[in-house]
């Protein structure tokens, strides 16, 4: 009578064992998947540990090695994104305190300067401007100026996107102009297959128009503010009048860079139509429908006009007062004015501004300054120059091209602002070591960081238009390499002819 009981107990035990095994198997599977997801984080940490324990290279201090290690690890994390990028920023801050032995108050001070204030203020202004929802009016304004011919409409889209992006940042303009592009596409045909090439041309007119404009003014992108900050931190001495040339204000930047944007602007349309052949040569059908929608919304309201006036006021402040009170202060004053008048609520700004991006740039700039202070940037620059000299690229146009290729490669794998933050100290020290103008090399680096035409993740503008669903990742590569070559040639010609003529 007891045997069946023992048998039952045995079966129950066996069943329990199998259940435990399944649980353990599932847990190990989840652990494996988690480790695989975080593999690049672990790889970066292992590389960092290896670098810190490696013999100290000749000419590099222990503090310099730590900063070089931090820069390499941060770059890997920027590119692979195994953790949110603001998390990388926090790691940079922690490492400066724990590994470098810096006082936390000093690290905190290095995170807050006019460049960071400018980035934050520009993002706040962008939210305030977009709040007015002027996308359809902008689309209708474009077609009224260009007519209905597809090539002219696309040029108009690039021009408007570019002009706006040159002042308020490409990611904001791309987000604002995307509905414009989609409106024209959907009003032309409801079948995406029938407007495949048309959609590519219209949407890339937005993203590439924004990209070429990002270098036009300091407010066009965080990269510009970062480079301006580096010039001031590295080379400016209030007691030495000769170093005043390193104080690049809003107007000076525009004089050097805005013509580069204007030259590239028509080339965007040319390259896109060369690569993709739109199915429709005329958009009359879409324009008629668009006109009806705009007329239904009525005329612009008082708040819309007030927003336009305020933003013009901010531009005037950047042009005439940024050299005295800082571009960041002007941007914050503009955002404050929008809040006081009531054109935007703080809740809108709080939701619309990516505060993680502000933290990311602040930490990256702080790391860049420490790269310079510890001599790590100079060591890397001299090592890079040593590789270029035998190739005949140690000075002049050869060096310019090498810096441009390096920056272009990096910026297509991470954000252009992060690319300049990481490369800035290196290339500026490279310029000093090679006897080249840090201003020229800085402009080349900033401009090359805009050549993020090749990948979806290269720039927010590309990511935003890709999210529409009309584009393939290969579309960017198909046309992007042509844009890279053309933009590089324009830049090198400017560095050789235009910039010296105006006094660099």
Your description of this structure?
This protein has two domains: about 1-40; about 110-500, no CATH class. It is about 75% helix and about 0% strand. It is built from 23 helices and no strands. α2 (about 40-50) packs antiparallel against α3 (about 60-80). The model has no long low-confidence stretch (mean pLDDT about 85).
How would the global form be characterised? globular
The structural domain count equals 2
Number of helices in the DSSP assignment? 23
What is the terminal-to-terminal distance?
103 Å
Q: How large a portion of the residues is in β-strands, by DSSP E?
A: under 5%
If you compute it from the alpha carbons, what radius of gyration comes out, rounded to the nearest whole angstrom?
26 Å
Elements, N to C (H/E): HHHHHHHHHHHHHHHHHHHHHHH
The main β sheet shows up as: none
- Helix share bin: over 70%
Report low-confidence residues grouped into runs of 5 or more.
none
Structural class: mainly alpha
Per DSSP E runs of 2 or more residues, the count of β-strands stands at 0
Average the pLDDT over all residues and give the rounded result.
Answer: 83
């Amino acid at each position: 009578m007891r045997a069946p009981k023992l048998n039952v107990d045995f079966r129950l035990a066996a069943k329990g064992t199998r259940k435990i095994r399944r649980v353990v198997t599932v847990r190990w599977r989840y652990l494996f998947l988690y480790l695989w997801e975080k593999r690049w984080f672990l790889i970066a940490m292992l590389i960092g540990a290896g670098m810190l324990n490696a013999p100290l290279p000749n000419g590099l201090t222990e503090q310099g090695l730590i900063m070089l290690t931090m820069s390499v690890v941060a770059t890997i994390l920027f590119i692979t994104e195994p953790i949110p990028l603001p998390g990388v920023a926090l790691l940079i801050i922690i490492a400066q305190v724990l590994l470098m032995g810096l006082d936390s108050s000093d690290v905190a001070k290095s995170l807050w300067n006019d460049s960071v204030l400018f980035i934050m203020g520009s993002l706040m202004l962008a939210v305030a401007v977009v709040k007015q929802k002027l996308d359809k009016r902008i689309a209708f304004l474009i077609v009224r100026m260009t007519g209905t011919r597809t090539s002219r409409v696309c040029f108009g889209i690039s021009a408007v996107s570019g002009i706006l992006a040159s002042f308020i940042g490409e990611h904001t303009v791309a987000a604002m102009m995307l509905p414009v592009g989609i409106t024209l596409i959907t009003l032309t045909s409801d079948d995406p297959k029938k407007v495949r090439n048309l959609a590519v041309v219209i949407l890339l007119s937005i993203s590439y128009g924004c990209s070429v404009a990002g270098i036009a003014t300091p407010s066009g992108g965080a990269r510009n503010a970062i480079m301006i900050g580096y010039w001031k931190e590295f080379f400016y001495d209030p007691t030495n009048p000769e170093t005043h040339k390193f104080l690049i204000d809003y107007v000076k930047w525009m004089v050097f860079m805005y013509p580069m944007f204007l030259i590239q602007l028509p080339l965007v349309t040319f390259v896109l139509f060369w690569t993709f052949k739109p199915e429709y040569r005329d958009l009359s059908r879409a324009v008629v429908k668009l006109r009806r929608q705009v007329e239904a919304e009525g005329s612009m309201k008082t708040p819309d006009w007030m927003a336009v006036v305020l933003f013009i006021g901010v531009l005037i402040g950047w042009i005439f007062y940024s050299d005295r009170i800082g571009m960041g202060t002007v941007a914050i004053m503009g955002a404050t004015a929008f809040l006081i008048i009531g054109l935007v609520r703080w809740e809108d700004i709080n939701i619309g501004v990516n505060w993680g991006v502000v933290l990311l740039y602040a930490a990256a700039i702080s790391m860049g300054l420490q790269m310079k202070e510890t001599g790590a940037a100079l060591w890397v620059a001299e090592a890079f120059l040593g590789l270029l000299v035998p190739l005949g690229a140690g000075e002049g146009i050869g060096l310019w091209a090498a810096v441009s290729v390096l920056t272009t490669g990096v910026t297509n794998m991470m954000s252009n602002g992060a690319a300049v933050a990481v490369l800035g100290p290196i290339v500026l020290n490279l310029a000093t070591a090679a006897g080249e103008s840090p201003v020229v090399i800085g402009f080349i680096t900033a401009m090359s960081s805009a050549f993020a035409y090749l990948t979806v993740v290269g720039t927010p503008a590309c990511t935003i238009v890709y999210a529409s669903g009309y584009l393939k990742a290969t579309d960017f590569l198909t046309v992007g390499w042509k844009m890279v070559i053309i933009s590089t040639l324009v830049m090198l010609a400017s560095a050789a002819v235009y910039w010296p003529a105006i006094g660099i």
